[in-house]
Amino acid sequence: MSDVTPKRKKLYIETVGCQMNLLDSELVVGKLRNEGYELTDDIGKADTILYNTCSVRQHAEDKIYSALGRIKQLKQLKPELTIGVLGCMAQKDQKQILKRAPHVDIVVGPGQLARVPELLVLAKEEATPQMAVSLPRTAGSNLTVTASFAEYDPIREPAMRPTPFQAFVRIMMGCDKFCTYCIVPSVRGPEQSRPAAVIVDEARALADQGVKEITLLGQTVNSYRSVDASGRTFRLSDLLERLHEIEGLQRIKFITNFPNDMTDDLLQAVRDLPRVSRYLHVPAQSGCDEVLKRMKRTYSVALYDDMLDRIRETVPDAAVSSDFIVGFPGESEASFEKSMRLVERGRFKNSFIFKYSPRQGTKADTLFIDDIPEEVKKRRNNDLLVLQTAISQEDNRRLIGQSLEVLVEGPSKSSKGVAAGEIGQLSGRSSCDRIVVFEGHERLVGQFVPVSIEDASGVTLFGRVVTMDLVAPRA
Ligand code: 5AD
Ligand code: SF4
């Protein structure tokens, strides 16, 4: 046996966008590590630089194009460097990426990620850029298009997870809702639910590796539906029941929900399964029926309100969060006011608020003019955020005096880190997804601890650990 180990190639990867992208990056890195790569944080030392990209708003794309511009010089100094653009922007812009950034070697859409290692080799061997993208939604039968968005959930890579005890699990791919503003159905392809048995096996393997919290991912996770070989249908509620039986998994979250599919069986599952997180992210997008109609969201404000009532009735301790788009074409002051009123009524834990960004290839971009000036979008964004923050703070303050079970994630953002064996400021999340900051011993990281809440801001709860003993997992 030779004692000369081959030099491992250094991989630098940057990920923007949603949790789906974080998971995709984990999987790509897992595969590349198996092929002899090792991760580096230092872009200057990398042999391969990958960007896993997002197309949901223009801003996310601009960020990547400027990053590509910045590394052009790096490539000139180091011609052997390989540069890759992966994910949604790769699928959307395809050859345009190579036109704008000819120093890019591979362009790989989210439905073709399994081919990344092979394409990295080919790009070098053939000294020409390689591209792998899925078919456009209109290119053929649904079956052919779906097949071009290949399932890709192979090797898990613990080093790429947010923490060793938390993991994402994809349960659905793609989206068929076609909201008029949204690029996701084009870049992530047709909606496909993964088989329940595959998901349960994956979750069990993660639990065996020490994962305590999983987050199930889907663009509309509560539309999940699969049928097994015996003909049994699994809805999200059925899947939660199965996952709840896995030993070691102590918290199960799922994001993101679509209002129409927030069915009673799902709410009852959240109520009855104690390890399912009391947190429901259900984007409303607007509080005005006319705007919802132009967005093709297929529900009315009344349906959304009714859904909120059902949530509050069935799972009173659940926190609900939402997304809003401000400045959608034709959004009048009166329409916007209706979004403000919905935020007031909804008492969301938080809302993610976005200024409308026209996306080429979407219905809204062809049908409507982006007629709301940027200053108006900015003002509406700010007004909604101020209102939401006041509500978040009011509701957070109601938790003062209560004790919440917190999964400790690590040192708090504002602390300078907590060294091994030391006490410092830690941060974690409650079952209702609230961020909780408290003083504690470093060994609490990765544990569930009861924290008594003493103070609250709009985004953070501050507390004290009820006992410094390591707390046993919840039964
Ligand atoms: N412009 C602004 N926001 C958008 N979102 C999706 N598409 C757009 C767009 N074109 C927002 C929606 C969605 C979130 C992930 O991003 O609120 O829920
Ligand atoms: Fe986009 Fe609508 Fe699908 Fe969400 S449900 S990913 S907003 S098309």
UniProtKB/TrEMBL annotation:
Organism: Singulisphaera acidiphila (strain ATCC BAA-1392 / DSM 18658 / VKM B-2454 / MOB10)
Co-factor: note: Binds 2 [4Fe-4S] clusters. One cluster is coordinated with 3 cysteines and an exchangeable S-adenosyl-L-methionine.
Transmembrane annotation, as ranges: none
Keywords associated with the record: 4Fe-4S, Cytoplasm, Iron, Iron-sulfur, Metal-binding, S-adenosyl-L-methionine, Transferase, tRNA processing
Metal-binding listed as a keyword: yes
Protein name, as recorded: tRNA-2-methylthio-N(6)-dimethylallyladenosine synthase
Subcellular location field: Cytoplasm
Residue ranges constituting the MTTase N-terminal domain according to the UniProt record: 9-125
Cofactor(s) this protein cannot do without: [4Fe-4S] cluster
UniProt record similarity statement: Belongs to the methylthiotransferase family. MiaB subfamily.
Gene name linked to the record: miaB
One Gene Ontology CC term in the entry: cytosol
EC number assigned by the record: 2.8.4.3
Residues reported in the UniProt entry to bind [4Fe-4S] cluster 2: 175, 179, 182
Record flagged with keyword Cell wall biogenesis/degradation: no
Segments forming domain Radical SAM core: 161-394
Subunit field text: Monomer.
GO molecular-function term, one example from the UniProt record: metal ion binding
Task performed by this protein: Catalyzes the methylthiolation of N6-(dimethylallyl)adenosine (i(6)A), leading to the formation of 2-methylthio-N6-(dimethylallyl)adenosine (ms(2)i(6)A) at position 37 in tRNAs that read codons beginning with uridine.
All residue ranges annotated as the TRAM domain in the record: 397-467
